[in-house]
Write a sequence for this structure.
């Protein structure tokens, strides 16, 4: 089952529990949990983790609801959504490790070493990470310490040239630790902030490979070791990551191939098996297909409720700094105006590929699933026309003036060559983002709204 299906099935289990008024509360919770549990198991999530999630949701829902007989329907709905959301987040979070996450510093040498099996996507991910950091103002170099596979250096070189990232490697040296050391020395001398070292893989976990990684690691002393894990390998991910953990004590996981048909659940379980956080996910073959992993963002996207955190993270790299700052200030105040919405739509259209970005806006991923990328792109263009037809006063407002004076909607629809319905849809989406911004400030930073629609 692909992740999008998993999200849909969880949503449908939650929604049926919310709308069920015939059974008693405990029965609806059990029916909902059965749906969620089946969906997670079919996505390869480890059975012990699923069972824990089930028990946690059940006990929380039943105890909280019993304590408040007067609970209204809306409150029950919120409680169910929030409890399921929080427990799903716990499933992909590993015990507090996130706070200890490595953050590279500018004007210092930060060495990042990649490990993983051949074909997991290591070389591609090294380049993606280099691009990710260079877009954020770091001076990044790539070192190919894979002397085992013929053609490894050429592959890294081609990727690096395409991405305009300086690189180092050797066609003659056979000792990978030596090449790694030389590369690091060269980039250190040239005052690079981040040096990413790609190591060799094998088809299987072999003693020789682990030995080699220990040797390289002893020589280069990385600040961070990232294990690259192919999300499509299912349950095998757990055993593979445990074996790597024993030899090269990696501190972070980068999950590749989360696009396409990956079930993803097996890889997610690897987090629990090694108590190591997933820090990035690869979502395609292109060098920009890398996303910072955050449990809340991931679950928000999985459930199609939009993801203000990731959207903002993406916006910072592409949009006009002043615009991004103004939107950030608004979000921090719990505000999200139509103008913020317009700027985001314009930026999103520059960012591409649309499929990666659409998931961050509430309702967009559903649209993508239903009508495909081209039609969604057309619809997004229309949305910008609608926003273009609004006055400055309207754009800077929270949108309520349209509800109070519906003739404004008629005027905007006429001006943009769209329908009143289309204008209403945009207002609805902006309202959802505004609610998310509001709850994000009320709860812990970045938390998606407890009242966001699932
Ligand atoms: P390595 O042997 O571990 O260095 O793996 P490569 O970097 O050569 O990648 C193996 C294959 O996986 C290549 O065809 C990549 O384009 C592909 N690949 C890597 N990451 C992703 C990803 O996130 N999504 C998809 N769809 N393909 C990926």
């Amino acid at each position: 089952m692909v992740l999008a299906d998993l999200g849909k099935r969880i949503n449908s289990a939650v929604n049926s529990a919310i709308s069920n008024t015939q059974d008693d509360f405990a029965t609806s919770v059990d029916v909902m949990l059965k749906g969620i549990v089946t969906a997670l198991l079919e996505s390869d999530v480890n059975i012990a983790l699923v069972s824990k999630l089930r028990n946690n949701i059940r006990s929380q829902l039943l105890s909280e609801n019993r304590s408040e007989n007067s609970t209204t329907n809306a409150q029950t709905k919120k409680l169910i959504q929030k409890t399921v959301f929080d427990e799903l987040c716990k499933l992909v979070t590993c015990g507090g490790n996130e706070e200890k996450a490595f953050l590279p510093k500018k004007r210092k040498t930060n060495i990042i070493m990649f490990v993983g099996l051949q074909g997991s996507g290591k070389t591609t991910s090294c380049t993606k990470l280099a691009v990710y950091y260079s877009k954020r103002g770091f001076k990044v170099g790539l070192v190919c310490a894979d002397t085992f596979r013929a053609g490894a250096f050429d592959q890294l070189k081609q990727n690096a040239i395409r991405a305009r990232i300086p690189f180092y490697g050797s066609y003659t040296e056979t000792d990978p630790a030596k090449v790694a050391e030389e590369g690091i020395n060269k980039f250190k001398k040239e005052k690079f902030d981040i040096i990413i070292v790609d190591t060799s893989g094998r088809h299987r976990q072999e003693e020789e490979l682990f030995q080699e990684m220990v040797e390289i690691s002893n020589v280069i002393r990385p600040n961070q070791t990232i294990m690259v894990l192919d999300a499509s390998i299912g349950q095998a991910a757990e055993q593979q990551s445990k074996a790597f953990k024993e030899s090269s004590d990696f501190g972070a996981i980068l999950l590749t191939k989360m696009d396409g048909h990956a079930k993803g659940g097996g890889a997610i379980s690897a987090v629990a098996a090694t108590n190591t956080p997933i820090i990035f996910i690869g979502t395609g073959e292109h060098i920009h297909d890398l996303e910072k992993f955050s449990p809340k963002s991931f679950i928000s996207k999985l459930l199609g409720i939009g993801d203000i955190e990731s959207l903002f993270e993406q916006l910072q790299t592409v949009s006009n700094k002043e615009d991004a700052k103004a939107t950030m200030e608004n979000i921090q105040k719990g505000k999200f105006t139509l103008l913020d919405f317009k700027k985001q739509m314009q930026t999103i259209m520059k960012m591409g590929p649309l499929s990666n970005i659409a998931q961050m806006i509430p309702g967009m991923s559903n649209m993508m699933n239903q009508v495909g990328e081209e039609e969604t792109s057309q619809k997004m263009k229309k949305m910008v026309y609608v926003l273009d037809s609004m006055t400055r006063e309207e754009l800077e407002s929270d949108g309520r003036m349209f509800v109070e004076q519906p003739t404004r909607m008629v005027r905007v629809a006429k001006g943009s060559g769209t329908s009143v319905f289309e204008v209403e849809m945009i207002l609805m989406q902006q309202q959802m983002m505004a609610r998310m911004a509001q709850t994000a400030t009320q709860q812990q930073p970045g938390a998606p709204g407890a009242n966001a629609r699932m």
